[in-house]
Design goal:
Helices cover 34% and strands 16% of the residues. It contains 5 helices and 6 strands; from the N terminus they run E-E-E-H-E-H-E-E-H-H-H. The strands form 2 sheets. The protein has a 3-stranded mixed beta sheet, with no helix packed on it. Strands 2-3-6 form a 3-stranded antiparallel beta sheet. A hairpin with a 7-residue loop joins strand 2 (7-8) and strand 3 (16-19). Helix 1 packs antiparallel against helix 5. The longest helix has 13 residues, at 22-34. The protein is globular, with a radius of gyration of 16 Å.
Length: 134
């Protein structure tokens, strides 16, 4: 999961935008090759005060749509059915591959290699969720 900061193009409109750049798209391709769903999450907050106690988020699966724009309005993604609900995320988890430490290390390495080299690693950091199986 990639956390995304909400962006405002026109603060008076209240429209929140999410940026999807080529680094996330490249990481998503690595995920698709291994069956790993890659999502992004963005708080629906229009100012710093809303951000501090936000309870409303936009979740999107990078594999479900093609983001041709750098700035993607959340309202348009919602209208086009690109946003995920809690049940959708749970289904992604249920249908995700099971990794052991070795296969996860391999996926992590492959995904990391899609990102440009920077001294302290990629500019965009994924949050990995490890779910214990029974």
């Amino acid at each position: 999961m990639f956390p995304r900061r909400p962006k405002l193009n026109d603060p008076d409109s209240g429209e929140i935008y999410v940026t999807i750049n080529w680094e996330l798209e490249a990481f998503n391709k690595a995920g698709e090759e291994k069956g790993v769903p890659v999502i992004a999450g963005c708080p629906r907050a229009v100012d710093i005060w809303e951000l501090s106690n936000c309870q409303n988020y936009a979740w999107l699966a990078l594999a479900q749509s093609n983001y041709h724009e750098y700035l993607n309005p959340i309202s348009k993604m919602e209208k086009n059915g690109y946003l995920l609900e809690k049940e959708d995320i749970l289904a992604l988890v249920r249908n995700s591959p099971v990794f052991n430490l070795e296969s996860f290390k391999n996926f992590f390495r492959d995904a990391k290699e899609t990102q440009p080299y920077r001294m302290y690693g990629s500019q965009y950091k994924a949050v990995y969720f490890l779910i214990k199986t029974h």
